[in-house]
């Protein structure tokens, strides 16, 4: 579970506690003395706590027309603003070590990450709901046609998903309560239930059975088929609406304190005003002492004077002893009178009733019992289905409390977006995020960064707010920050083959990182360098990287290994090569066949080839002290940002991402994608669990791997699944008898011949199309369009090399001869060997 590091902030502030003065350096996040500091860290946090812009009643604390409230207070950031709540500028703290702006409202919205469940491995691709399992393997694909839904009316007003599920079971239908949504109807005596099941015939059968059942028993129960929406999935990089905040005013009572001395009454009054005296640790409202004596007693004598202090907003559960507890014995009141609570309820009952109201909207994934603030009780809950939070806010907000009809229940839907990035990238762009946080806060969007869990090198970031548009805008801004920048010089990508190996050039890149305070990622798959950090530092890095690339004359060449050569390389041969070449070789065990890539001069390459061909016996003591267990299982060098698998094998974080993407995007032609460990010289083959992939892959890489796995799954089942023929549509449908109307582009497609010919038979369409076939082929030839040899999808080459990937079946194709391949590497080897080049001007391609 992700742990979020944050300050512990009291529910109410106002004064710095007596004792040690606050540590200004701690408030600025740079105290070096930690626990040995002679100043108070706790009071520094309380003094620095920003004031919420909205109070418990929902009214604005500041003048909305005062634009100064949108600007951060520079004295507050330094820990020495003397105006407190009266300051017209925004009291906004820098982000904490966890990356979160410390505000009560932010903590209330963002929480500590516990309410965010683990990724369930379900995605939507091409209009299909896809379930993934270990190894990112596809285990199930469901289409919209696989679902059906029905609405059952005139159910008892007390019906719940569980009671409806039991009633359906009696009718012969096994339906989980998670598939049932119960909601009120216009008639308070009845309610309706919407039922969605992954069974295309379910709604038809249910309507028929309930109709017969109602006629037989003469009941009002009715069922009709309704449009069936696809289940909405959660995931990284999308705005979802699952979480709600519910609150209501707490019950209070009034208390009267009677004193015989005006001075003592005034003193107690002042103590309550200052917050020194509380009831059950809650501040209360206090009224000025009043003389409540009667002028003349019944015996005609003046009665003793009584001074009464009235306390309001006292917690309903407070007793006389609770009130007396904070008042010293020497100034105790002569008498304490307790009024009746504004309403009666039990905390457990309130939790249960509010929870049941939410569960009428949809099943809950997570629930937190009420936390009682100064005036209001607040609960947080998270629905299983996206969109249910907005529905709950629409139906329940400002409605009556289920346990107090005069009270109002406030229900607020929250929108959130999550990201997962390498922690070192987050640390590099954190100053940029800090600057952006104040802009997000002005839009009531709160940012949180959760500490990496376990051995993961990735950190989860989250944006959350109560307005969909604001969260979506903030999401796009954060995406832009996390994207970094591609190193360019004179509008050309900076790259040299020397960037791929851990040699001298790599050492220069690491030195640049340290000196400039940025992160440099060598994207070997896309042959580019990606920079993360302050813009001025990244621009400086581009100039220096270009100098490195210009003076480097290395080329990359590869040595294919047969089974004996691969075994020799694993037993020390590769390490002998790296020592001989000074780190200019990498071990590519992802490709088929395995190979050693040498990046250096022609002499370096000839030396490596000679060592492989000779296969000299390697003395283990002569090789590097780095053992295989401690080496990266892909590049066989010391791992950078180590990823350690459950089976005990290590990877560089970049190598691990490259392994996952390469395996998913270039699967073998006769097998689905299933990622496994390449440790122990590719003999481990233990499947990488879906949880492990979610933990150690950045969100962009994970989504790329899952989508590639889905595309490979569909490509191997073209007799069952097809893509919509409309250009750039990408919707998937199942081969069946009848017509498929694409919900994305609304094109009607015959599922027998997979062509759009609405109103015609397949034969009529074929006859009509045959007359124009020659013209169509001539037009394709003139426009440079060719058909995929496998699925006949039209392909046009705009620029780049002759390696093409079909947009329909994802087959790798040589554009010159239209030969197909299972992987991109096979296609490149074919083009190099058969055609002598890969179709780029100047034949610049080299391994």
From TrEMBL:
<feature type="zinc finger region" description="C3H1-type">
    <location>
        <begin position="67"/>
        <end position="94"/>
    </location>
</feature>
<dbReference type="InterPro" id="IPR013083">
    <property type="entry name" value="Znf_RING/FYVE/PHD"/>
</dbReference>
<dbReference type="InterPro" id="IPR013087">
    <property type="entry name" value="Znf_C2H2_type"/>
</dbReference>
<feature type="zinc finger region" description="C3H1-type">
    <location>
        <begin position="18"/>
        <end position="44"/>
    </location>
</feature>
<keyword id="KW-0863">Zinc-finger</keyword>
<keyword id="KW-0808">Transferase</keyword>
<dbReference type="GO" id="GO:0008270">
    <property type="term" value="F:zinc ion binding"/>
</dbReference>
<dbReference type="GO" id="GO:0004842">
    <property type="term" value="F:ubiquitin-protein transferase activity"/>
</dbReference>
<dbReference type="InterPro" id="IPR001841">
    <property type="entry name" value="Znf_RING"/>
</dbReference>
<dbReference type="InterPro" id="IPR000571">
    <property type="entry name" value="Znf_CCCH"/>
</dbReference>
<dbReference type="GO" id="GO:0043161">
    <property type="term" value="P:proteasome-mediated ubiquitin-dependent protein catabolic process"/>
</dbReference>
<protein>
    <submittedName>
        <fullName>Uncharacterized protein</fullName>
    </submittedName>
</protein>
<dbReference type="InterPro" id="IPR002867">
    <property type="entry name" value="IBR_dom"/>
</dbReference>
<dbReference type="InterPro" id="IPR044066">
    <property type="entry name" value="TRIAD_supradom"/>
</dbReference>
<dbReference type="GO" id="GO:0097039">
    <property type="term" value="P:protein linear polyubiquitination"/>
</dbReference>
<dbReference type="GO" id="GO:0043130">
    <property type="term" value="F:ubiquitin binding"/>
</dbReference>
<dbReference type="GO" id="GO:0000151">
    <property type="term" value="C:ubiquitin ligase complex"/>
</dbReference>
<keyword id="KW-0677">Repeat</keyword>
<dbReference type="InterPro" id="IPR036855">
    <property type="entry name" value="Znf_CCCH_sf"/>
</dbReference>
<keyword id="KW-0833">Ubl conjugation pathway</keyword>
<dbReference type="InterPro" id="IPR051628">
    <property type="entry name" value="LUBAC_E3_Ligases"/>
</dbReference>
<dbReference type="Pfam" id="PF14608">
    <property type="entry name" value="zf-CCCH_2"/>
</dbReference>
<dbReference type="InterPro" id="IPR018957">
    <property type="entry name" value="Znf_C3HC4_RING-type"/>
</dbReference>
<feature type="domain" description="C3H1-type">
    <location>
        <begin position="67"/>
        <end position="94"/>
    </location>
</feature>
<comment type="pathway">
    <text>Protein modification; protein ubiquitination.</text>
</comment>
<feature type="region of interest" description="Disordered">
    <location>
        <begin position="48"/>
        <end position="68"/>
    </location>
</feature>
<keyword id="KW-0479">Metal-binding</keyword>
<dbReference type="Pfam" id="PF22191">
    <property type="entry name" value="IBR_1"/>
</dbReference>
<dbReference type="Pfam" id="PF01485">
    <property type="entry name" value="IBR"/>
</dbReference>
<feature type="domain" description="C3H1-type">
    <location>
        <begin position="18"/>
        <end position="44"/>
    </location>
</feature>
<feature type="domain" description="RING-type">
    <location>
        <begin position="632"/>
        <end position="681"/>
    </location>
</feature>
<dbReference type="Pfam" id="PF00097">
    <property type="entry name" value="zf-C3HC4"/>
</dbReference>
<dbReference type="Pfam" id="PF18345">
    <property type="entry name" value="zf_CCCH_4"/>
</dbReference>
<keyword id="KW-0862">Zinc</keyword>
<feature type="domain" description="RING-type">
    <location>
        <begin position="628"/>
        <end position="841"/>
    </location>
</feature>
């Amino acid at each position: 579970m992700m742990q979020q590091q944050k300050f512990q902030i009291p529910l109410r502030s106002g004064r710095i506690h007596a004792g040690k003065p606050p540590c200004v350096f701690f408030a600025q996040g740079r105290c070096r003395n930690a626990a040995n500091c002679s100043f108070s860290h706790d009071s520094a946090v309380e003094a620095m706590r920003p004031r919420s812009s909205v109070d418990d009643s929902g009214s604005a604390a500041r003048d909305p027309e005062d634009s100064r409230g949108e600007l951060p207070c520079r004295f507050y950031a330094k820990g020495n603003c003397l105006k407190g709540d009266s300051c017209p500028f925004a009291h906004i703290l820098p982000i904490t070590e966890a990356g979160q702006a410390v505000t009560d409202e932010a903590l209330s919205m963002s929480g500590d990450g516990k309410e965010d469940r683990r990724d369930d491995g379900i995605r939507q691709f091409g209009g299909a709901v896809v379930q993934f399992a270990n190894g990112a393997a596809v285990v199930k694909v469901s289409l919209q046609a696989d679902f059906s839904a029905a609405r059952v009316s005139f159910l008892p007003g007390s019906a719940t998903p569980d009671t409806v599920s039991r009633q359906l079971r009696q009718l012969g239908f096994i339906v989980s309560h998670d598939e049932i949504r119960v909601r009120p109807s216009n008639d308070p005596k009845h309610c309706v239930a919407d039922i969605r099941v992954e069974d295309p015939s379910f709604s038809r059968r249910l309507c028929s059975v309930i109709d017969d059942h109602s006629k037989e028993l003469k009941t009002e129960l009715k069922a009709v088929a309704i449009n069936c929406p696809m289940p909405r999935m959660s995931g990284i990089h999308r705005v979802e609406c699952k979480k709600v905040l519910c609150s209501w005013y707490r019950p209070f009572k009034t208390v009267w304190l009677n004193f015989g001395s005006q001075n003592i009454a005034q003193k107690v009054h002042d103590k309550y005003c200052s917050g020194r005296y509380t009831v059950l640790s809650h501040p209360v409202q206090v009224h000025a002492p009043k003389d409540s004596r009667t002028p003349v007693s019944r015996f005609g004598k003046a009665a003793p004077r009584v001074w009464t202090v009235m306390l309001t907003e006292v917690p309903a559960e407070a007793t006389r002893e609770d009130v007396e507890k904070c008042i010293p014995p020497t100034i105790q009141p002569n008498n304490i009178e307790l009024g009746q609570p504004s309403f009666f309820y039990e905390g457990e009952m309130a939790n249960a009733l509010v929870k049941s109201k939410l569960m009428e909207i949809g099943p809950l994934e997570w629930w937190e019992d009420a936390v009682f603030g100064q005036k209001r009780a607040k609960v947080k809950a998270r629905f299983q289905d996206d969109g249910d939070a907005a529905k709950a806010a629409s139906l329940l907000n400002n409605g009556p409390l289920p346990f107090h009809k005069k009270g109002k229940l406030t229900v607020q839907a929250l929108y959130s977006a999550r990201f997962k990035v390498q922690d070192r990238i987050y640390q590099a762009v954190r100053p940029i995020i800090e600057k952006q946080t104040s802009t997000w806060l002005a839009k009531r969007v709160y940012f949180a960064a959760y500490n990496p869990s376990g051995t993961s090198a990735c950190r989860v970031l989250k944006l959350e707010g109560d307005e969909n548009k604001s969260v979506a805008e903030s999401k796009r801004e954060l995406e832009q920050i996390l994207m970094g920048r591609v190193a360019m010089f004179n509008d050309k990508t900076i790259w040299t083959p020397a960037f791929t190996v851990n040699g001298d050039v790599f050492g220069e890149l690491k030195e640049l990182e340290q000196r400039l305070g940025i992160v440099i990622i060598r994207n070997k798959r896309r042959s580019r360098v990606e920079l993360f950090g302050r813009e001025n530092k990244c621009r400086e890095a581009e100039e220096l990287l270009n100098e490195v690339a210009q003076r480097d004359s290395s080329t990359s060449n590869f040595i294919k290994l047969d089974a004996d050569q691969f075994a020799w390389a694993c037993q020390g041969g590769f390490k002998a090569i790296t020592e001989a070449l000074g780190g200019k070789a990498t071990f590519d065990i992802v490709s088929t066949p395995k190979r050693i890539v040498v990046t250096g001069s022609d002499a370096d390459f000839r030396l490596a080839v000679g060592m492989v061909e000779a296969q000299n016996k390697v003395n283990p003591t002569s090789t590097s002290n780095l053992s295989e267990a401690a080496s990266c299982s892909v590049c066989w060098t010391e791992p950078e940002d180590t990823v350690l698998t459950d089976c005990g094998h290590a990877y560089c974080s970049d190598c691990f991402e490259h392994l996952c993407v390469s395996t998913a995007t270039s699967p073998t032609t006769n097998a689905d994608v299933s990622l496994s460990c390449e440790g122990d010289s590719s003999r481990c083959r233990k499947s990488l669990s879906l949880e492990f992939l979610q933990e150690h892959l950045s969100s962009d890489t994970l989504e790329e791997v899952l989508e590639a796995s889905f595309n490979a799954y569909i490509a191997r089942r073209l007799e069952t699944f097809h893509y919509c023929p409309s250009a750039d549509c990408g919707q998937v449908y199942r081969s069946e008898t009848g017509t498929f109307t694409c919900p994305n582009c609304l094109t009607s497609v015959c599922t027998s011949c997979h062509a759009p010919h609405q109103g015609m038979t397949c034969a009529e369409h074929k006859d009509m199309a045959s007359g124009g076939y020659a013209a169509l082929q001539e037009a394709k030839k003139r426009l440079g369009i060719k058909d995929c040899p496998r699925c006949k999808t039209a392909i046009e080459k705009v620029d780049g090399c002759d390696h093409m990937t079909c947009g329909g079946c994802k087959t790798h194709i040589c554009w010159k001869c239209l030969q197909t391949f299972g992987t991109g590497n096979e296609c490149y080897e074919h083009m190099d060997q058969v055609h002598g080049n890969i179709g780029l001007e100047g034949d610049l391609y080299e391994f």
